[in-house]
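Dear colleague,

Thank you for sharing your sequence with our group. We've completed the structure prediction you requested, and as agreed, I am returning the results in plain text so they can be pasted directly into your records. Please verify that the sequence below matches your submission; if there's any discrepancy, let me know and we will rerun it promptly.
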Amino acid sequence: MLIDFVGLGSMGLGMATSLVRAGHAVRGHDPDASRVEMFIAAGGIAASESTTPADALVSAVLNADQTRSVLSNTQSVAARLRKGGVIVSCATVSPDFAKEMEVAAANAGHLYLDAPISGGAIKAAAGQLSIMASGTAEAFDLAAPILDAMAETVHRLGDGAGEGSAMKAVNQLLAGVHIAAMGEAMAFGASQGLTPEQVLNVVSVSAGTSWMFENRGAHVVEADYSPRSKVDIWLKDLGIVTEIAATSGLPVPVSTNALAQFRAASAAGLGNEDDAAIAKYFARAGGITLPGDV
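Please find the predicted structure tokens below.
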């Protein structure tokens, strides 16, 4: 397939490269020219090299605003998609927004797959993501080679947009709460004279562990806060969770509290650091210095 891929960030670059490795011709789009250059070095095609209408568009951008820009602007990448082509939208957005984009795609003569992702940059590069997808049977059929290349597991959740994004919100509720809990646990351990390495080693083989604890806890141990996923991402993702819950009248106090902690960490100047930096926020509040903090 000829595929336009928009968003060559920490996840998108690996996803696009997985598509190339599977034999697809992939045109890469990103405002950061250095990311496009990295993709071309991995076998991708520069967007300017071809004007042939694409069979598919994969959008791996940050949020709803960027998704709308990719899909709705008459000068957008979607304008180069052939009629009957499929849009695979991977951003974390609300279910209502996904449904809106499905309608917009249909009005433009395209199929739409609501397909948020999970797994991290390493699994993205290996083509081993978990994709939470919903859409018509036709959209799934056309997108099948794309999903096969990018994912280890594709969860087929419904016959229209919305269910995929709803499931991603469930996942992000847990992921955000687990990261916040990791940060609090690391700070708590340090307050009792334990090193982050001790906390990580023991909890990782004990009942309190989680994938997020082990993954982000390692960042704290290594004092490496270079952003793979930023603190500010959780203002968006947990914000989506609380907004969805509010429309349903469902209280989500644990998620709401975690969101408040990420907001406070962002306000304290940690917003552009790796989300593991939530541990630094908790530690500083208790007058504790974690490795690598100043």
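Summary note from our side: The domain at 165-285 is CATH 1.10.1040.10 (N-(1-d-carboxylethyl)-l-norvaline Dehydrogenase; domain 2).

Kind regards,
the structure core
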